[in-house]
Write a structure and sequence with these properties.
Elements lengths: L2 E3 L8 E3 L6 H6 L1 H15 L14 E13 L3 E12 L5 E2 L2 E4 L4 E9 L11 E9 L4 E6 L2 E4 L5 E2 L1 H10 L9 E2 H5 L28 E8 L1 H10 L11 E6 L3 H4 L4 H15 L4
Parallel strand pairs: 2-3, 7-13
Antiparallel strand pairs: 1-2, 3-4, 4-5, 4-6, 7-8, 7-10, 8-9, 8-14, 10-11, 12-13
Length: about 280
C-alpha cells in the first residue's frame, strides 16, 4: 500500500492508495479534484462563528481508497473511497464515497409547428430506454444523458442514438441550462461551492448532473413519423432505443429516473416564474 499526503492540507490528510493506483493518477482524476476542493472549502467555512459546527469543527483526517475501475484499461473511471471526517469530540460524519464525476442530461421537447407558439399543446419528450445493471434493469426509461464534447455539442451513446434515429444535432448554443437558472451562484466565499447541478445520490456518490432544456418545433408529419418509430421497443439485440412521451405524462413514464423528475420539476417551476 502506498501512502501520501494531500498537498497543502491543514491538518495533513493522509491518503492510502490501492496497489493499482498511483498518486499522480488520483490527483489528476477530475472527479477527485472537484470533490476534494469542494469538501475542503465547505470545511473551511466552519471558521465562521455563525456556522453550526463552529464550536466543534469537523476535519478531513484520512482517505482510504478501497477500489478503482479503469476504462479501456488505462483511463481512471470510478474510485471508491472512505473519507474519515470527524471533530475533536470523536463525532464522525458518514464518509463512504463513490467518485465518478459529472455528466449532463437533456430534456428534449418536440412540438408540431402548426400549433400555437408559446403553448404546451402536443409537446413530446424524447426518452432513452436501455439496460441499467446497477438498478437491476434491462429496460429503464430515462432522460438522455451524456456529455458536452470539446465542440460544445451533446455527445455520448444517447446523443449518437438520437442522431442516428432522427438526424437531430444538439449544439450548446441552443441549450438552456435549467439548473443554473434555478440555483443561484455563490454570492460570497462563505457560501458552499457546490456545482450548480442536481445531485441524484449525495449520500454516497459525488455525481452531479446539470439539466438542460432543448425545444424544437418540427413539421407534424415528421413528428408523426418519429412517434411511429420511437416507441421504446427494441429490436433483437439492440441495447439502447428511444421513445417519445407526452410532456404531461413524462413524470409517470420516466418516474424511476431522478433526471426525469428533477427536469420536470425545474421545467414547471421555471415556466411558472416566466424564466423559460
Amino acid at each position: 500500500m502506498t501512502t501520501f499526503t494531500i498537498p497543502n492540507s491543514e491538518p495533513e490528510v493522509a491518503v492510502n492508495l490501492t496497489s493499482n493506483l498511483s498518486k499522480e493518477q488520483l490527483l489528476s482524476f477530475p472527479a477527485f479534484k472537484t470533490w476534494i476542493s469542494t469538501l475542503q472549502h465547505s470545511l473551511s467555512n466552519q471558521k465562521d462563528q455563525s456556522h453550526p459546527f463552529n464550536s466543534a469543527p469537523y476535519r478531513l483526517r484520512k482517505i482510504d481508497v478501497q477500489s478503482v475501475d479503469f476504462f479501456g484499461g488505462k483511463r481512471l473511471g470510478f474510485v471508491k473511497l472512505k473519507a474519515e471526517v470527524s471533530n475533536d469530540n470523536g463525532e464522525k460524519l458518514p464518509g463512504s464515497v463513490f467518485l465518478r464525476g459529472g455528466s449532463v442530461a437533456m430534456m428534449l421537447i418536440l412540438q408540431p409547428n402548426d400549433v400555437l407558439e408559446n403553448t404546451e399543446d402536443e409537446k413530446q419528450v424524447i426518452l432513452t430506454v436501455q439496460p441499467r445493471i446497477p438498478a437491476g434493469s434491462l429496460a429503464l426509461a430515462e432522460l438522455p444523458a451524456g456529455m458536452l464534447d470539446d465542440s460544445g455539442t451533446f455527445a455520448g451513446a444517447a446523443a449518437k442514438e438520437i442522431g442516428e434515429e432522427t438526424g437531430l444535432k444538439i449544439p450548446v448554443s441552443d441549450l438552456i441550462n435549467m439548473t443554473e437558472l434555478a440555483i443561484p451562484a455563490p454570492s460570497s466565499d462563505s457560501d458552499e461551492h457546490l456545482q450548480r447541478a442536481m445531485y441524484p445520490s449525495p449520500g454516497g456518490c459525488d455525481e452531479f448532473t446539470p439539466l438542460f432544456l432543448w425545444q424544437r418545433r418540427v413539421p407534424r408529419g415528421q413528428l408523426k413519423e418519429w412517434q411511429g418509430k420511437l416507441t421504446g421497443i427494441r429490436r433483437h439485440g439492440e441495447k439502447i432505443t428511444l421513445m417519445l412521451c407526452p410532456l404531461d405524462q413524462v413524470w409517470k413514464f420516466g418516474g424511476r429516473d431522478a433526471k426525469v423528475l428533477a427536469a420536470w420539476a425545474l421545467y414547471q417551476g421555471l415556466k411558472g416564474e416566466g424564466k423559460i
